[in-house]
Amino acid sequence: MNVREHSKGTLFINGKKLYFEEAGEGETVILLHAHSVDSRMWNAQFEALGNHYRVIRYDLRGYGKSEMPDQRRFFRHIDDLIGLMQQLHVSKAHLVGLSLGSMLAVDCLALHPEKVLSVSVAGSGLYVTEKDQWLPFTESEQSEVDSAAKEVNIASFKQEWFSGLLDSCGQHRDKIKDELWRMIENWSAWQPVYERRWPLVGPSIVKLLRDRPSDLPLLIMIGEEDSIGSRQSSEQLAALISSAETVYLPQSGHMSNMETPELFNHTIISFLHKRGNEYRK
């Protein structure tokens, strides 16, 4: 793929500008990035998938080149995703997510199965239980914002987060640490200062997933060297959705798409190709 042929720009979605890029043609694949980084984490997948599909990647609200949220208003990433699909005239898509991006993909599978061709997740799975208590966001929480902003040392926080993220990566962590740090260094770190709770669906997602159509393809990729919590989250999703295809990625940790890109790409493309053949029968 000639990278000069891909398009990029911003879309005004739910009151905020979101940065996106797209390339290729055919069925649409949307790449959903992890927390603390941005859509650049998909460099190896953007080109590889662009040879076979129409591939879209974008910076979630509060990350990369997209606008920051309003700390006075709660939002959900899923609503932005659906808005992006509408503006780019995508009726259905294959969703590929990692960590936070996996949580978003699972939210879409639960709330909008009619928009989904398939879902592929890595580095996370079932991110909440039905018993978890999520307090509703209220504008009265704005009184906490200024004091919270003074309590967070962003530089120290980024260094600690980066160190912890590297620890969750596998044996190839050294080859990605510079690229990973560049994204974290550019990160606004808006979230630890202002977010009252994660902009996700929350505990109701468990029942929604149980009630979803049973024939929607789901691939769960688990890095064998990922953290225990992340692996357990993925395995809990696999236990909830028995029809899911689970693949363990050797020599891969939390950022498996960057650590072992050839293996990750092969796994994704093989899964999507198989789904396409089944769909065409």
Automatic annotation (TrEMBL):
Pfam family, one: Abhydrolase_1
Coiled-coil intervals, chain numbering: none
InterPro entries: AB_hydrolase_1 (IPR000073), AB_hydrolase_fold (IPR029058), AB_hydrolase_sf (IPR050266), Epox_hydrolase-like (IPR000639)
UniProt superkingdom: Bacteria
Keyword tags: Hydrolase
Residue ranges of domain AB hydrolase-1 in the record: 28-260
GO CC terms of this entry: membrane
A GO molecular function held by the record: hydrolase activity
Hydrolase listed as a keyword: yes
PANTHER family linked to this entry: AB HYDROLASE SUPERFAMILY PROTEIN YCLE, MONOACYLGLYCEROL LIPASE
Protein's name in the database: Pimeloyl-ACP methyl ester carboxylesterase
Lineage: Bacteria, Bacillati, Bacillota, Bacilli, Bacillales
